[in-house]
């Protein structure tokens, strides 16, 4: 019998935080190119664990480990977006590992009919269009930054097994306040620019305490995040890395529809 090569990366996989956009992201050649080029510059993961802004349950849950339809959790878009597919392999082995990494006080439930939501499949369709990497989605148990950071710390050993951990949200997400930008106005509102700059500076300093207190300390609040679920996955990403105080590598910057696309790699 021919021995199969060990495909586990020599170094741990990075962890990412990204702005996942919306289905029209897949028609935006600039944003599509940024996501695709970013993935091409990373080691090829053996599998992907993604935490999306669009799934919060208590206790935590994992998506289906059998093929099921995607979740089309958006409205008002052309019909073709509701017909898109992303048939990535499932990841039952990783599901078992994720459960084992969590303490008995925080069991992880199975959601056998739950497919990937657009916070997962939209960016992955851009980054790994061949859908050849197994994917598992994990819900957020709450929106507490320190708790989510601890969840990330418990997931960190997956990186040694070739798993790419992704927190998928949006650096700013003030949807009620961007109508003119959605209609084509260039640039971004001051609250979006101010929050983005504040977050980048805190990340560059590795200032976790400041980031944890973003609701009180960040300029642009609450306009930047009237609800905070799109910023929350960032803390899973930071928890999953060995040195969250290190400056991240910004793969994508700038604004779309007035919202910050800032996305980064951490190790």
Structure description:
The protein is of the alpha/beta class. The protein has one domain: Protocatechuate 4,5-dioxygenase, Chain B (3-Layer(aba) Sandwich). It has a 6-stranded mixed beta sheet with strand order 5-2-6-1-10-7, sandwiched between helices. Strands 3-4 form a two-stranded parallel ribbon. It has a two-stranded antiparallel sheet with strand order 8-9. β8 and β9 form a beta hairpin. α4 crosses α9. The longest helix has 16 residues.
Give a quick summary of the entry.
The chain has 267 residues and is an alpha/beta fold. The protein is 30% helix and 14% strand.
How large is the share of residues in beta strands? 5-15%
Number of domains: 1
Structural class: alpha/beta
| The CATH architecture | 3-Layer(aba) Sandwich
Low-confidence stretches: 1-5
Principal-axis shape equals: globular
Main beta sheet: strand number and arrangement?
A: 6 strands, mixed
**Helical content (DSSP H or I, runs of 4+):** 25-40%
**If you consult CATH, what is the topology?**
Protocatechuate 4,5-dioxygenase, Chain B
Largest sheet strand order: 5-2-6-1-10-7
What is the N-to-C order of secondary-structure elements (H for helix, E for strand)?
A: EHEEHEHEHEHHHHHEEEE
Tell how many strands the DSSP assignment holds.
10
CATH C-level class is Alpha Beta
Computed over alpha carbons, the radius of gyration is 18 Å
Measured distance between first and last alpha carbons: 37 Å
The CATH superfamily bears the name LigB-like
What's the average pLDDT?
95
């Amino acid at each position: 019998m021919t021995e199969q090569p060990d495909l586990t990366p020599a170094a741990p996989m990075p962890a990412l935080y990204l702005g996942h956009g919306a289905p029209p992201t897949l028609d935006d050649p600039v944003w599509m190119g940024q996501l695709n080029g970013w993935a091409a510059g990373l080691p090829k993961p053996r599998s992907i664990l993604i935490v999306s802004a669009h799934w919060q349950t208590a206790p935590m849950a994992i998506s289906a480990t059998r093929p099921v339809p995607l979740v089309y959790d958006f409205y008002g878009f052309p019909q073709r977006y509701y017909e898109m597919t992303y048939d990535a392999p499932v990841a039952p082995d990783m599901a078992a590992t994720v459960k084992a990494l969590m303490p008995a006080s925080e069991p992880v439930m199975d959601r056998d009919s739950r497919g990937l939501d657009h916070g997962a499949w939209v960016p992955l369709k851009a980054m790994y269009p061949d859908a050849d990497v197994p994917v598992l989605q994990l819900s957020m148990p709450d929106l507490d930054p320190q708790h989510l950071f601890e969840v990330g710390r418990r997931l960190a050993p997956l990186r040694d097994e070739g798993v790419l951990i992704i927190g998928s949200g949006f650096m700013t997400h003030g949807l009620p306040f961007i109508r003119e930008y959605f209609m084509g106005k260039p640039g971004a509102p001051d609250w979006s620019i101010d929050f983005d700059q504040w977050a980048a500076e805190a990340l560059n300093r590795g200032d976790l305490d400041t980031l944890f207190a973003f609701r009180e300390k960040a300029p642009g609040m609450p306009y930047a995040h009237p609800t905070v679920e799109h910023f929350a996955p960032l803390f899973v990403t930071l928890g999953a890395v060995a040195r969250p105080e290190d400056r991240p590598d910004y793969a994508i910057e700038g604004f779309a529809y007035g919202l910050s696309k800032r996305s980064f790699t951490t190790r």
